[in-house]
Amino acid sequence: IALGGTRMPIQFSTARRAPARAEVVAHGLTTEVLAGDGPLPAGLDRGDLGRLGFTAKVEQVQVVPAEGRLVVAVGLGPADGVDPDGLRRASACLARAVRGRRSLALDLASVTDAVPRPEAARAVVEGTALALYRFGYKSTKDEDRLSRVTLVGSTAAGVRTAVEQATAVVEGVKLARDLVNEPGGSLTPPKFANRVRRMARDRGLTVKVLDEAAIKRARLGGLLGVSRGSTQPPRFVELTWTPKGRPKGTIALVGKGLTFDSGGLSIKSGVGMMDMKMDMGGAAAVVGAMSVLPVLAPRCRVRAYLPMTDNMLGGDATRPGDVLTIRNGKTIEVLNTDAEGRLVLADALSMASEAKPDAIVDLATLTGACMVALGPRIAGLMGRDDGFLAQVEGASARTGERVWRLPLPADYRRMVDSPVADMKNIGGPHGGAITAGLILGEFVADGIPWAHLDIAGPAFADGDDCEVTRGGTGFGVRLLVDLACSFTPGG
Q1: What is the pLDDT of residue 2?
Q2: What gap in Å lies between CA 302 and CA 360, rounded to an integer?
Q3: Kind and range of the H or E element at 123?
Q4: Which of 137-146, 153-162, 392-401 shows the lowest mean pLDDT across its residues?
Q5: Catalytic one among 342, 398, 402, 478?
Q6: What helix, strand, coil percent values describe the chain, rounded to 5?
Q7: How far apart are CA 87 and CA 178, in angstroms?
Q8: Cα four-point dihedral sign 228, 230, 231, 235
Q9: What confidence score (pLDDT) does residue 97 get?
Q10: How many CB atoms lie within 10 A of CB 187?
Q11: Which of 146, 154, 377, 484 is the most exposed place for a label (fewest CB within 10 A)?
């Protein structure tokens, strides 16, 4: 998908016991097992592990040389605290420790009944594969040899299905990471749209791409206003997954697709601009999730709306004080051209609302204010309809992609009042994530449940941490896929 993208995927399989050819055999250990509650697996000794400082903490990995292969102890913490997120993190740390070996057999789940085997298998596949993701344009490549992973302990049909589904989700996350990591000069809006079109045709999704002329006919004034300073024409992409039979409702996904954000005439600092190739992380997450749906086949219809442009400083760039008319007819006074994501999302939310879906979710690397509030690993969740927001929170809990609900108080709406338009595109110096959410809410039709995810923090990482790798994280792919598979209209 991307010029600097990832290598071939790891092959996962299941088996009752570790294959004789496996170069590495890994066992999950809880603190209780390490303390003497039951026998240790062959090749491990409590005295040796103690002398090496192994205490079975989550993410702790201890390699022990054995005859003909390596045996690895992987810490899982207390047995009553083992959960899918801990298994995902432990698997990621294990994968990094043995990435130079070709084959790995691991049994992390048999020491606890706290996690059903299919859920455990899903977490292990995600942690192992995502931790080994690589992207770059270096002339010499780091060589990762791990290509075969066997999950030991169960070959039940449910476990095998979980492995297959998790492998598909991993590929969706890697696709999103590739797109985010691609430089803005390479992934221009037209090239982004073309890559999504190819993916959609390969997966059997319905795709529609609006070029600049079609965008003008569609009256997408926010998207056109942001793109005015660029020599690269904008694009607007629509994707649709339709299940066989009668769909169980329709959910719309909207993703911010700013392929590079200079800030426009309200230009960013040099440091603030360095990572702005990631400002299409919302659209990338939606694309990654849509690529998985044909494999998991949720019963609901899923439509995606992706506005794509970059935000530059050309001779006809939108000026502070300009007024833009969004597709639904509402007007926005632009006082800061670096608050551009809400302008393109306004058009996309208006388009999504016109199709009358049962719910809408938008994802956007929208505000630094949200990152200040919640840090680099938690997304802000805002919206309307407690039942639907609870469904989003449930998907977050199951996938380990953390969100925290923020309010949208009605009295804060006056902070974006404008004397010349229906609203301005910035509020005051405080509550920036909330005022941005209030602006977006103006473009979601009344009565449609809506969730807004501000992913400015977790969409991009400064370094490796368990299954997260430096650069684009693909945050939101797992959450959206889970939400589509579990979605209940009006529930």
Answers
A1: 41
A2: 10
A3: helix 117-131
A4: 137-146
A5: 342
A6: 35, 20, 40
A7: 25
A8: negative
A9: 94
A10: 25
A11: 377
Residue type, 45: D
Q: For residue 380, list its beta bridge partners.
A: 404, 454
The closest of 180, 175, 177, 241 to 207, measured between CA atoms, is 241
DSSP strands (E only) in 317-449 = 323-325, 331-333, 359-364, 379-384, 403-405, 423-424
415-426: string of b/e by CB count within 10 Å (b at 16+)? bbeeeebbbbbb
Rounded Cα distance, 482 and 172, in Å:
13
Measure the CA–CA gap between 108 and 96, rounded to whole angstroms: 16
> In which region does residue 287 sit, left (phi positive, over 0), alpha (psi from -120 to 50) or beta (all else)?
alpha
Query: Which strand (E) or helix (H) includes residue 232?
Result: none
Return d(Cα 475, Cα 477) in angstroms, integer.
6
Residue 116: both structure tokens together? 């059903």
Q: What is the DSSP letter of 414?
A: G
| Identity at 153, one-letter amino acid code | G
pLDDT of residue 7: 58
Check 268, 299, 405, 413 and give the catalytic one.
Answer: 268
Q: pTM for the full model?
A: 0.96
pLDDT in tens, 414-470: 999 999 999 999 998 999 999 999 999 999 999 999 999 999 999 999 999 999 999
Report the candidate in 26, 86, 33, 81 with the shortest Cα–Cα distance to residue 56.
Answer: 33
Task: Print the SS3 string covering 129-180.
Answer: HHHCCCCCCCCCCCCCCCCEEEEECCCCHHHHHHHHHHHHHHHHHHHHHHHH
Cβ atoms of residues 307 and 363 within 8 Å? no
Give residue for tokens 């221009």: 188
For residue 342, indicate whether it is catalytic: yes
HSE-up (13 A, CA, CB side) for residue 126: 29
Rg for the chain (alpha carbons), in Å?
A: 24
Contact 388, 279 (CB under 8 A): no
Residues 97 and 48: beta-carbon distance below 8 Å: no
Q: How far apart are CA 223 and CA 212, in angstroms?
A: 10
List the alpha helices (DSSP H) in 212-280.
Answer: 212-217, 221-227, 270-273
Helices (H), 333-431: 341-354, 368-374, 386-399
Distance CA 172, CA 180 (A): 13
